[in-house]
Design a protein that fits this description.
This protein has about 575 residues and is an alpha+beta fold. It has helices spanning about 10-30, 105-115, 165-175, 210-220, 275-285, 330-340, 345-350, 380-385, 420-435, 445-455, 495-510, 515-535, and strands spanning about 80, 85-90, 120-125, 130, 135-140, 145-150, 190-200, 200-205, 225, 230, 235-240, 250, 265-270, 290, 305-310, 315-320, 355, 390-395, 400-405, 410-415, 440-445, 460-465, 535-540, 545-550, 550-555, 570-575. The chain is built from 12 helices and 26 strands.
Length: about 575
C-alpha cells in the first residue's frame, strides 16, 4: 500500500504554493492584535513537538507577516508553557446532544462532537485536500472502484478499548443505512460494500469511481456510547459531564494516539444573551468566546486584557442572477452587471475584515488550481456599452437605463431576518444605481425568498452559504439529496446548460484515485464555464471574531478547518497562567 500523499516534486510545489496563500490570507486578516499563525505543513496527528513561546504570527497591518515561526521539537517545554490548566469558553447556544450523525447539531454541539469523535480522514489545514486521521494511509485500485484504508496502530476509545477494523465497518455500514439515523446515506449510495480485511484494514467498493462518496466515507464519525449513555470517542478530549446550568465539561484524553493535549480540560458555559456574555468576558469568568454578533464586542478595548482575533469565515455571500428573467438572460449582460459590483467596497461596509472571493471555495483550495479572476470594477460607461446588446439603453435621456425601451427596476432580494444579507443587498443595489441601472432592495421573509428562488420569480438575490471542503457538495450546484435528485438550480439554468454543467462536475467527481491535482485540472473547466456564463457572482466571506485571553497560545487559523481544530496544541503561558 502506497502512502496517500506521496511527496513528489509536484506535491511539494503545491504545498509551497498553499503555504504562500495561507500567509496571504493571514495578512488580509491583519489587525492591531496578533493574528492567528499559518497552518503548519505537517500531517494532522503527527507529533509537532513542543511549541515555541508563541504560535501567533505577528502581522503588520495591511502588510505581510513579519515572521512565520513554526513549532520546533524541544526536549523540554519552554519556560513560557504551563502544562495543564483549563479553558472556559462562553457562548449563547446550549448543548442538548453531541451525536454528529443526525447532521442537525448547532455550532457548539458540533464543536463538542468534533473534540470527542474522529473520522478516517480530515481536510488539510493548508488547502483542504484529504489527509490522514484515524486512517494513516489509503490506496485505490487502478480502476478506482476499491479503496483500502489502513488504520493507525494504537488508537483507543475513551473507555480504553482498542479501535478495530470491525468498529470502522460498523460505523460505515450504519452511515449507509437509510434507517441508521444519519444523513449521509444518500451520498453513500455509490458504495456497494464495506468489509474488514484484517484488524487494521478496511476496504470499500464503489459502483463507479466517485470522489464525493470517497470523501463522505472518510468523514463518517466513529461514535460509541457507554452503558450510562455517555459519548465515547477517540478524540483528544473525552466527556466529563454536564452540569444543571448547561455547562459542559471535557477532560484531556491522555491515551490519545496523537500529541496529547497540553490542557487538562475544556469547558463550555452558555449565557442567555450577548450582554451577559460580554459581562462575563469583562469579569474574566470565561477565557474566550466566538463572538455571536455581527459587530465587534464593546468589551474589547486596550484595558480589557483580551485579544480580538479575526478568524476565517465559515460562509460566503453570493449574488444569484435569475437567468429566466428577460433582462438577465444574456450572459454578457450578467457579466457586465457583475462588473459593477465592487466587492471590496461591500466588504468594507460589513466590517472590513474578510476575503473577496471568485468562487464558492476558500482561497487556496486545492480544486482552484491556478484559476484566478482578475476582474476590476468596470466603469459605468463600459458597462452601459456592454449592456446595450442585451436590450439596456437610456431611451429617454433621463440618465437611467431602460430595458427594451421601457423602465425596468431590478429588485435585489434578501430576507429581512438576516441583517448581513440585507446590508449587502442594499450595497449591491446602490452600486448598480450609481452606474445608471435602476435597482432597489426588496426585503422579504425567508419563506418568501426561498419560494421565489425555487419558482424563479426574482431578479437578483443575495444569499450566504456554507463552505464545503468537497467541491461537489457546493449548495449552488449540488443535487437535492431527497427523492427527486435534482439540482437546486436557483439561477434557473436552461436544461442544456444544466446538463453541460453536470457533465463538467461529473468529470471532476469521477476521477479514479481522486488525486487532487487531477481533479483540479477537471475543475478548471467548471470555473471557466461559470466565469463565462455567470449565473451567479460570488462576493465575499466576512471574518468572525474570537475574543480570547492573550495568555492562551497555540491557535492556528485555517479556512479549511474549525477554529478549534488543533486544540490539543493550545496552552497557557507564564504571563498570567490560568
Amino acid at each position: 500500500m502506497s502512502p496517500s500523499c506521496p511527496e513528489n516534486p509536484r506535491d511539494l510545489a503545491q504545498r509551497a504554493l498553499s503555504i504562500g496563500l495561507m500567509l496571504l490570507f493571514a495578512a488580509t486578516f491583519a489587525a492591531c492584535q496578533p493574528a492567528p499563525g499559518t497552518p503548519l505543513p505537517t500531517t494532522p496527528g503527527e507529533d509537532q513537538g513542543t511549541p515555541t513561546a508563541t504560535l501567533h504570527t505577528p502581522i503588520t497591518p495591511g502588510g505581510a507577516p513579519t515572521t512565520a515561526r513554526t513549532p520546533t521539537p524541544s526536549p523540554t517545554p519552554p519556560p513560557a508553557l504551563i502544562p495543564g490548566g483549563r479553558v472556559v469558553q462562553g457562548g449563547l447556544s446550549r448543548v442538548h446532544r453531541v451525536d454528529p450523525r443526525a447532521g442537525d447539531l448547532n455550532p457548539v454541539e458540533q464543536e463538542m462532537a468534533d473534540l470527542l469523535f474522529e473520522s478516517l480522514l480530515v481536510p488539510s489545514p493548508l488547502d483542504g485536500r484529504p489527509e490522514p486521521a484515524l486512517a494513516e494511509e489509503w490506496a485505490f485500485s487502478p480502476d478506482g472502484l476499491e479503496v483500502t484504508f489502513r488504520l493507525r496502530e494504537g488508537v483507543r476509545w475513551h473507555d480504553g478499548a482498542p479501535l478495530t477494523a470491525e468498529d470502522v465497518v460498523q460505523a460505515l455500514e450504519t452511515a449507509r443505512d437509510p434507517d441508521g439515523g444519519g444523513t449521509l446515506w444518500p451520498l453513500l449510495k455509490p458504495v456497494l460494500s464495506v468489509e474488514a480485511l484484517g484488524p487494521r484494514e478496511v476496504r470499500a467498493t464503489f459502483r463507479e469511481p466517485d470522489c464525493w462518496a470517497f470523501w463522505t466515507l472518510g468523514q463518517v464519525p466513529l461514535v460509541r456510547w457507554d452503558a450510562e449513555g455517555r459519548p465515547v470517542g477517540t478524540g483528544p478530549f473525552r466527556w466529563a459531564g454536564q452540569e444543571t446550568d448547561g455547562r459542559v465539561l471535557l477532560e484531556a484524553f491522555r491515551a490519545y494516539w496523537g500529541p496529547a493535549p497540553y490542557l487538562d480540560g475544556w469547558a463550555y458555559q452558555p449565557f442567555p444573551d450577548a450582554a451577559s456574555l460580554e459581562q462575563a468576558l469583562g469579569a474574566g469568568v470565561v477565557d474566550l468566546a466566538l463572538w455571536p454578533e455581527k459587530d465587534v464586542p464593546a468589551v474589547w478595548n486596550p484595558a480589557s486584557g483580551y485579544a480580538l482575533l479575526p478568524l476565517p469565515g465559515e460562509t460566503y455571500f453570493v449574488l444569484v442572477f435569475n437567468t429566466r428573467q428577460p433582462p438577465l438572460r444574456d450572459a454578457a449582460g450578467r457579466r457586465a452587471l457583475a462588473g459593477l459590483v465592487d466587492r471590496a467596497a461591500l466588504l468594507q461596509e460589513v466590517g472590513g475584515k474578510g476575503l473577496v472571493l471568485d468562487t464558492p471555495l476558500p482561497s487556496g483550495h486545492w480544486a482552484l488550481g491556478t484559476f484566478r479572476r482578475t476582474e476590476p470594477v468596470s466603469p459605468p460607461e463600459a458597462v452601459q456599452k456592454a449592456l446595450s446588446p442585451a436590450g439596456w439603453a437610456d431611451a429617454d435621456g433621463d440618465g437611467w437605463l431602460d430595458y427594451r425601451g421601457k423602465p425596468r427596476v431590478l429588485a435585489v432580494e434578501a430576507n429581512a431576518e438576516n441583517p448581513w444579507r440585507i446590508e449587502i443587498a442594499q450595497g449591491v443595489a446602490a452600486q448598480l444605481r450609481a452606474a445608471g441601472v435602476p435597482a432597489e432592495l426588496r426585503a422579504v421573509e425567508w419563506g418568501v425568498l426561498l419560494s421565489d428562488l425555487v419558482s424563479h420569480t426574482f431578479d437578483l438575490a443575495v444569499l450566504d452559504l456554507p463552505f464545503h471542503t468537497e467541491p461537489a457538495a457546493c449548495t449552488l450546484w449540488r443535487e437535492d439529496t431527497g427523492r427527486k435528485r435534482e439540482p437546486f438550480n436557483w439561477p434557473g439554468l436552461a436544461d442544456e446548460d444544466l446538463d453541460h454543467l453536470g457533465t463538467l462536475l461529473e468529470a471532476a467527481r469521477d476521477v479514479p484515485g481522486c488525486r487532487p491535482e487531477e481533479r483540479a485540472a477537471q475543475y478548471a473547466s467548471v470555473w471557466a464555464w461559470l466565469d463565462e456564463e455567470r449565473p451567479f457572482q460570488v462576493l465575499l466571506s466576512p471574518a468572525r471574531w474570537l475574543v480570547v485571553d492573550p495568555a492562551l497560545k497555540g491557535l492556528v487559523a485555517s479556512p479549511f478547518r474549525p477554529w478549534y481544530w488543533n486544540l490539543n496544541r493550545w496552552y497557557w503561558t507564564a504571563e498570567t497562567g490560568s
